[in-house]
Write a structure and sequence with these properties.
The complex is a heterodimer of chains A (663) and B (483). Chain A has 663 residues and is an alpha/beta fold. In chain A, the strands form 3 sheets. In chain A, strands 10, 11, 12, 13, 14, 15, 16, 17 and 18 form a 9-stranded mixed sheet that branches. The C terminus of chain A is likely disordered. In chain A, helix 13 packs antiparallel against helix 14 and helix 19 packs antiparallel against helix 20. Helix content of chain A is 38%, strand content 19%. Chain B is an alpha/beta fold and 483 residues long. In chain B, 31% of the residues lie in helices and 22% in strands. Chain B has 12 helices and 18 strands. In chain B, the strands form 4 sheets. A 7-stranded mixed barrel of chain B has the order 9-10-12-17-16-15-11. Chain B has a 6-stranded mixed sheet with strand order 5-4-1-6-7-8, sandwiched between helices. Chain B is elongated, with a radius of gyration of 36 Å. The termini of chain B are far apart. Classes of the chains: A alpha/beta (663), B alpha/beta (483). The interface between A and B is large, with 149 and 151 residues. Strand 19 of chain A pairs antiparallel with strand 18 of chain B. Chain B: Keywords: Nucleus. Chain B: It is found in: Nucleus. Chain B: It holds the Pfam family IntS14_C. Chain B: This is von Willebrand factor A domain-containing protein 9.
């Protein structure tokens, strides 16, 4: 987490000698020659050592920020007679645009400045001081860890681009860094905003012009003390320096290279022909983990690149199919950075991906068998190399879900639950979005799910109201956290509409599965429906006073005294079955899904005793006890006790009859 | 993880175990007893585990092969710890482990992630009396410390072999039971293979995280939005029926005893939330985000194995507050209905995902890189190409010119600005008679501005400043009195 690569301090020498030409000539006046005879071509240009150092370090940062947009921080320091610190460790400062603007303000080194007062040493001292400064990430970790805050480490790397005089000069620079670390660590020990440096890697890059002999020798990494290691690279300016820094950025940040091969591209001149191109990408080396583990790295077509220092794995472009949305089994996804970012093949590939297409990549194998091992895909303007699982799965050939629990039930409310899922889709909220109750968005999402599922029968034959279009407006509103007066009105209208339907004796979609004959009579159907509706609304009655009003509306509208009389008569005939009903009621309640629904249980708790006997009305003997029976209690509450018993019985006992019959 | 059981069938395994007054057992019988216990446990509680049995002495014989290859394994070695002597014995092999040539490497460490469990049909004292224990420990060390040695406690008998294998079962083969919850809708489930603890950052946070047994759904996301996320592992989520006593009835899979069959048929016929969820996820092409613990999430989705078979699958994301950059912080995901405006659009035509990062990546922002000469040449050519098409291409001309200017200023490459200025001046002199008069004005204006910038004068060399087209009589900007 806080490895050496958490903090990188660039120190670039801005002394007069860096204004010297790198002596690599670039012709910018090439294509005009053919056109105009007699025109003397302009002299080629050449970059200064400074320009070479800047553009290569910017390239290092570009790759770094592409692959690690967070956590890996750069502090850029320019040194001449004084120190210019171009940015801070803050995440918002970590982009090449800011750095380029700051570099433009510094400008190239002034060759006429007094060389005596200029030195890269100022920059190295500033770099050590800067490494002691705590980053936002270190601060956050220390704050959250509290008592184990000492686990947060402080390590870093200094990359110094300079033109040194000699090996002795290099030694002097190293000694200076070591001394400064010791000094600064003493200072840091007594400060909250500073941390002592535990480990520092110094990477000195000596840059010299083409055609000159180097005065400084390369040296491999060497421990100068327990805190400081140092290495020296002596590199010619220009493309040698560029490839050196490219190798370094890969070493420093565990990167690896993949070359996408066989990318078909239309030719610029001939739009109807296409040729195949290769594009090299850098990314975290874990994207090659499978090859490394299986020892396949060489088999996977890895070849040495022109730099001769690093290898690249070749993967073959597979022409994408139509935009099918598929969930691949992906074991890793790593941000990429193209090595040659604005070459035509690179930008063609990246634009193709940024436009939303994905490309599968094939691992070339000796045997000729085709293995898709990776996928390139962009998300939010960032391109990722996805690692697809290509080994055999331990989960092959599992039993189908239809063979397990609940697998034989065929009337799940699949479409309704699909609708439920759409209503409960997630969306990102700004970081500060915490509601009045102090809940984070994800907590609000959970509480919404809780509300929406207080009464949610899983199968079609368990419910009447959710099969009725007329109930939809109320059902959609009642689950909400808050209702407006207008919402209450809509709910009331729904209820009136149902009353109207009942008056007209419209048929209801009551399930007749498992029941004999035509199923319950029309008035019985309405009673079942009203009971279920009451269950739904009762589950939400505690939410607000307006929810309460909806329940009141139902209670007021549904009373039908003449019909009760009739039921009372029928009820008496079946009184002898009451005991059985009660038993079954309890039994089924235990097993039913309502057992887990604590909230619903709470709502029902008060009425439980009177309730149990009437709890099961079975639509189907095969289906578990439906909840829609519970509403009956509500009816009972309003009625005198004897009456309510009578009222409840007929359908309850019918259910029992069915059940017994079936068994 | 699939399991390979290795049974030591060397002669020493036939040594009798002396137990007074009872039937005489050989160590082999005890081993078989323990292994039977292990296999029976798997058959009832860990049904989907793949197992293979290999018997070995100085040679080996594959008794029950795997039907496929895997990338991870658990190896259970059942032995009496008698290591043998001479060439080919474990003792000799370990002593010469460093002298082996590449093509005859010692099998450990295995070239795949693995756990090695050594079940000793012997007690610890017996093994410590010789160097057996040291050698076995060395095996575990060679496997990167992944694994464990089990020895028998007390006398060698059926009871103690049972207790030893019982420990292995608890350690490596206990089924993972959980409750899957979506608000008030719930289902008891077995998660297979069981999710192993995960350690993310050993330095700052060395405590392994374990998946909690309460799997709570927090909401839903389209498959296109979650977009093939990287996952740590995948697991089947199998609904299980739990009877009143709390005993598991089974996952309802086939091939049960008759007794179980009826219970399973019952379980098959009562509605289960997993089946409902699976069906709707499949139809809608969505996934359910599920919370696995504090700051740890995963997703549930329908996984089709073939055309007919499909299953509810759970994948675990990396622990942490932001496992998928394109979803942002998980704790900041809330119900879409809470947003002021429906983020999915009234007709489902929009999506709040993916989240756009603050800064564009280099490949998405037309950066300037001149490391290769061709990069620089291309940029100069672009300017010249547009220069020849002035005034039609005025906007593009200045856009490319300013891009080059910015980069040259940042790189301290003033020489280039001077060169390009000269190129433009020359272009101006080469304009044909038929050229639009505005072209000459723009070219000399641009050349002059570049020269001023190359002086480093802060008035003309400011990075954020751009060279703007000169307003002329011909540019139609209404500035008739300018020139």
């Amino acid at each position: 987490m806080f490895s050496v690569s958490h903090k990188t301090a660039f120190v670039v020498d801005h002394c007069p000698y860096m204004a010297e030409s790198c002596r690599q000539l670039i012709e910018c006046d090439m294509l005009t020659k053919s056109r105009s005879q007699g025109v003397i071509p302009l002299a080629p240009v050449s970059k200064s050592l400074w320009t070479c150092a800047i553009e290569c370090s910017m390239e290092y940062c570009r790759i770094l920020f592409d692959v690690y947009p967070t956590w890996k921080l750069v502090n850029y320091i320019v040194s001449d007679s004084e120190v210019h610190i171009l940015n801070s460790w803050k995440q918002e400062d970590q982009n090449t645009h800011e750095l380029m603007a700051a570099l433009a303000a510094v400008g190239p080194p002034n060759p006429r400045q007094d060389p005596e007062c200029c030195s890269v040493l100022h920059g190295l001292v500033a770099a050590v001081e800067s490494l002691c400064k705590i980053t936002e990430y270190q601060h956050e970790s220390r704050t959250t860890l509290m008592d184990t805050a000492d686990r947060v480490a402080n390590r870093g790397r200094i990359i110094c681009l300079t033109n040194a005089k000699s090996d002795t000069h290099v030694r002097m620079l190293e000694d200076c860094v070591l001394e400064t670390i010791q000094e600064q660590n003493k200072r840091a020990a007594g400060s909250d905003r500073l941390m002592p440096i535990q480990q520092c890697e110094l990477v000195l890059v000596h840059i010299y012009p083409q055609g000159e002999e180097t005065l400084v020798s390369d040296r491999q990494k060497k421990e100068l003390s327990s805190m400081l290691s140092s290495e020296v690279h002596s590199v010619r300016a220009g493309r040698y320096l560029a490839s050196k820094l490219n190798v370094l950025v890969q070493q420093h940040f565990d990167l690896a290279s993949t070359t996408i091969t066989n990318i078909p591209m239309k030719e610029e001149q001939h739009a109807n022909t296409s040729a195949n191109y290769d594009v090299e990408l850098l990314h975290h080396r874990d994207a090659h983990m499978e090859f490394i583990k299986s020892g396949d790295l060489h088999m996977a077509g890895s070849t040495s690149r022109d730099s001769g220092l690093k290898e690249t794995v070749t993967l073959k472009w597979c022409t994408p199919r139509t935009n099918s949305v598929e969930l691949h089994y992906c074991t890793g996804a790593y941000r990429i950075s193209p090595v040659d970012v604005n070459s035509r093949p690179s930008s063609c590939l990246t634009n193709f991906l940024l436009n939303g297409r994905s490309v599968l990549l094939e691992q070339p194998r000796k045997s000729g068998s085709k293995v898709i091992s990776h996928m390139l895909s962009s998300h939010g303007g960032e391109i990722f190399l996805h690692v697809l699982n290509s080994t055999r799965s331990t989960l092959e050939d599992p039993p189908s879900i239809s063979e397990g629990c609940g697998g034989r039930v065929t009337d799940y409310r699949i479409t309704d639950f699909g609708e439920f899922m759409r209503e409960n889709r997630l969306t990102p909220f700004p970081d500060s979005m915490i509601d009045a109750a102090g809940r984070t968005p994800v907590e609000r999402a959970k509480s919404q799910l809780e509300r929406y599922t207080r009464y949610w029968p899983m199968i079609i034959s368990q419910t009447t109201i959710f099969n009725m279009q007329a109930v939809v407006p109320l059902a959609n509103l009642i689950v909400k956290d808050t209702l407006t007066d207008e919402d209450v009105l809509t709910c009331q209208k729904t209820v009136y509409n149902l009353v109207d339907m009942e008056r007209k004796s419209d048929p209801l979609p009551i399930s007749t599965v498992g029941s004999r004959g035509k199923g319950p009579k029309r008035d019985e159907q309405y009673r079942i429906m009203w009971n279920e509706l009451e269950t739904l609304v009762k589950a939400h009655v505690g939410t607000s006073e307006r929810h309460q009003r909806v329940l009141e509306c139902i209670s007021a509208c549904r009373s039908k005294p003449p019909e009760e009389e009739e039921r009372k008569k029928r009820g008496r005939k079946r009184e002898d079955k009451e005991d059985k009903t009660e038993k079954n009621g309890k039994d089924t309640e235990e097993k039913g899904w309502t057992t887990d629904s604590e909230r619903l249980k709470g709502v029902m708790e008060r009425e439980k005793d009177e309730q149990s006997e009437c709890e099961i009305i079975k639509d189907s003997p095969d289906s578990p006890e439906p909840l829609n029976k519970k509403p009956r209690l509500a009816t009972e509450e309003q009625q005198p006790p004897e009456k309510s018993k009578g009222l409840a019985l007929p359908s309850a006992s019918e259910g029992v009859v069915e059940r017994n019959h079936h068994i | 993880m699939p399991t390979v059981v290795l049974l030591d069938s060397s002669l020493s395994m036939t040594r009798p175990v002396s137990v007074e007054g009872s039937e005489e057992f050989q160590r082999k019988n005890l081993a078989v007893h323990g292994m039977t216990m292990l296999f029976e446990h798997m058959a009832t509680n860990y049904r989907l585990e793949f197992t293979s049995l290999v018997a070995f002495s100085s040679l080996w014989e594959l008794l029950v092969p795997f039907s496929r290859d895997y990338n991870t394994l658990q190896v259970v070695l059942v032995t009496d710890g008698a290591l043998g002597i001479g060439r080919g014995s474990l003792r000799h092999s370990l002593q010469t482990v460093k002298q082996r040539v590449d093509d005859k490497k010692f099998p450990l460490p295995f070239p795949f992630p693995s756990k090695l469990y050594v079940m000793c049909i012997a007690n610890a004292e017996e093994l410590q009396a010789t160097d057996s224990m040291d050698n076995l420990e060395q095996l575990i060390n060679l496997n990167g410390g992944e694994g464990q040695i089990y020895t028998m406690e007390g006398p060698l008998c059926l009871k103690s072999v049972q207790s030893m294998f019982g420990k292995l079962i608890d350690q490596a083969y206990s089924p993972f039971h959980a409750v899957l919850r979506c608000g008030n809708l719930t289902s008891d489930v077995q998660v297979f293979p069981r999710p192993e603890p995960v350690t993310i950052d050993e330095e700052v946070d060395p405590i392994p995280k374990t998946v909690q047994t309460d799997l709570e759904i927090v909401g839903f996301i389209e498959i296109g939005d979650i977009s093939s996320p990287p996952v740590l592992s995948r697991h089947l989520v199998l609904p299980i029926a739990v009877s009143k006593e709390g005993d598991e009835i089974g996952t309802g899979a086939t091939d049960d005893t008759e007794e179980e069959t009826s219970t399973n048929q019952m379980a098959g016929k009562s509605p289960n939330f997993c089946v409902l969820l699976h069906g709707s996820l499949k139809v809608e092409g969505m996934v359910a985000l599920v919370q696995l613990g504090p700051d740890w999430f995963g997703m549930l989705y329908s996984q089709a194995d073939s055309k007919k078979k499909s299953n509810l699958m759970m994948s675990l994301f990396d622990p942490g507050s932001e496992p998928l950059p394109w979803l942002g912080r998980m704790s900041q995901l809330g119900p879409a209905s809470d947003a002021a405006e429906n983020p999915y659009g009234e007709d489902d035509s929009k999506s709040p995902f993916p989240i756009q990062p603050k800064h564009k990546r280099s490949y998405a922002q037309n950066v300037t890189v001149w490391i290769k000469a061709s990069g620089l040449q291309t940029d100069v050519q672009k300017i010249l190409r547009n220069a020849k098409k002035l005034p039609e291409k005025t906007q593009t001309f200045y856009k490319e010119l300013n891009r080059l200017r910015k980069a040259a200023l940042a790189f301290g490459f003033w020489e280039l600005l001077k060169s390009v200025a000269e190129l433009l001046e020359r272009e101006c002199t080469l304009l044909p008679d038929s050229a639009h008069p505005d072209a000459a004005f723009q070219l000399s204006h641009a050349a002059q501005q570049l020269k001023l910038a190359s002086s480093g004068d802060s008035k003309y060399a400011a990075f954020e400043q751009n060279i703007t087209p000169m307003l002329t009589d011909f540019s139609g900007g209404g500035g008739a009195d300018r020139i």
